Amino acid sequence: MDPYRLGLLGHGTVGRGVVDLLHRTSEECGRRTGRHLEVTAIAVGDPTRPRALPEGCAARITGDPLEICRDPAIDLVVELVGGIDAPREWIRAALEAGKDVVTANKAVLATHGEELFELARDHDCRLLFEASVAAAIPVIQVLQHGLPAGPIDRLLGILNGTSNRILGRLEGGMPFTEALAEAQRDGFAEADPTLDLSGWDAGHKLALLTRLVLGTSVPLDALKVEGIERIEPIDLAFGARHHWCLKSIAELRRRPEGISLRVAPTWIADNSELAAVHDEYNAVLLEAETFGTLVLQGKGAGGLPTAGSVVADILRAARGEGRTPATPRQELRILEPGSSPSRHYVRFRAKDRPGVLARIAGALAEEGVSIASVEQPEPVDPSAVPVHLITHPVPTTVLDAALSRLGPNGILSEDPLRIRIDALPSPLPSTRVDEGPGATKGATPCPA
Ligand code: HSE
After folding, report:
1. Distance of alpha carbon 214 from the chain centroid
2. How far is the CA of 161 from the centre of ligand 1 (A)?
3. How many Cβ atoms sit within 10 Å of the Cβ of residue 158?
4. Per-residue pLDDT tens over the stretch 50-86
5. Contact 214, 115 (CB under 8 A)
6. Predicted pLDDT of residue 158
7. Whether residue 137 has its Cβ less than 6 Å from ligand 1
């Protein structure tokens, strides 16, 4: 069989998974591609450290990724290091040398995708990236090849397994630092977990999906991105009493007046489809006139699911499939993030003394923000009592302006936390009317 020679950049959790999987499934890979797949070189940070490779794998270990990218004997480079600047150079060098490239690196493609995809086209090479979004879910394939013609009106995603797992643990009362340490220990978090927590890992993934949905790239500054760093178990406990579930939701929405793109912690109804996505699972929900609603769900993080997706791209490239289609530039009207009205949850920590609630209500009133309900539990620590507030529908930008009026004022012990509510108002459990004959049960559709 004709050999197809691979050079790997990176031999961490995913890199080891790729080498092992190719080894274990080599017969099947040969059958599916008609070629003999061979890992011939691996670039690592410390080439002097002994590496356990599968029996029979004679890959040379090097400390120089560029040497692999320029090696004429190598057909395809697999980039699994992460980061932006150095991988950009490696991918450029590999494409310029006429090699196919497979990467799981969403940050480099979200930042320099246009340049790299154009280079791939100029050199008639493939640049494949299925593993960069939602690991085991073949969402790139679905968006590129699997859907009927016609516009997608909305994409909702849970695109970061680490934050989804952490939010689930907070719901069970686990402190944030412990939940993060657990996600890192289990190999779900990025090497730099600030990307997971800040929402930017999901932001990079949303930018890649947006490019496929709209057929043109969007600048990263078109995205409004908020993280989960300030969420606490008390927020989750409050939400549970209202039948809400907190998810970091990535959203692309196409309206007649323009496109909106955001990633933010969002309250959704606890019986909605995305509320059932737990742990490191990811989901992508698509809405279009042609097919209605389509939900894809699967493991979104972890060594093996990501390695499986990388190997799927390697097989595609070995079969000669997957050339990058051109994406002609289009003028897009990007809407100001947070300009559409929605109910919001706000959590304050304030001093327990007369006039505090009046000051908060006054600041909101000055911007025309109407309060739907307020709850203050009996204080344990009177210097920082939590106050949970729900607003009537208001644009996030207006609410933020109102909250900024509170500024540093001696009554709040920290900045307020606000979270958008994408769940329809429902009666509280104590006042809920039990389902009688004729009442409907089941999943709540995503609200408009
Ligand atoms: N750190 C990412 C996540 C996995 O938690 O989803 C790779 O994209």
Report:
1. 18
2. 5
3. 26
4. 899 999 899 999 999 999 999 999 999 999 999 999 9
5. no
6. 98
7. no
Instruction: Take residue 337 and report the two structure tokens written for it.
Output: 């993030």
**Cα distances (Å, whole numbers) of residue 273 to 238, 240, 265, 278, 442:** 21, 16, 16, 11, 10
Residues noted as catalytic:
205
CA of 12 to the centre of ligand 1 (A): 14
Question: What DSSP element (H or E) covers 116?
Answer: helix 106-122
- Check pocket membership of 103 for ligand 1, CB cut-off 6 A: no
Which of 160, 184, 204, 205 to probe ligand 1 with, by most ligand atoms within 8 A of CB? 160
Q: Which of 448, 325, 343, 326 is nearest to 395 (CA)?
A: 343
CA distances from 324 to 20, 128, 291, 358 (A): 28, 8, 25, 58
**The two structure tokens encoding residue 1:** 């069989």
Instruction: State both tokens at 429.
Output: 């459990």
Residue among 160, 381, 373 nearest 249 (CA): 160
Q: Is the pLDDT of residue 429 over 50?
A: no
Above 50 in pLDDT, residue 276? Answer: yes
SS3 158: strand
Spatial distance between the Cα atoms of 109 and 258, rounded to a whole number of angstroms: 24
Amino acid letter for position 251: E
Distance (Å, rounded) from C-alpha 272 to C-alpha 265? Answer: 15
Domains of the chain in sequence order: 4-132 (3.40.50.720), 139-300 (3.30.360.10), 341-444 (3.30.70.260)
Q: Is 189 in the pocket of ligand 1 (CB under 6 A)?
A: yes
The pLDDT of residue 338 is 82
Residue-wise pLDDT tens digits, 387-424: 999 999 999 999 999 999 997 777 898 999 999 999 87
Determine the average pLDDT of the residues in 139-150: 91
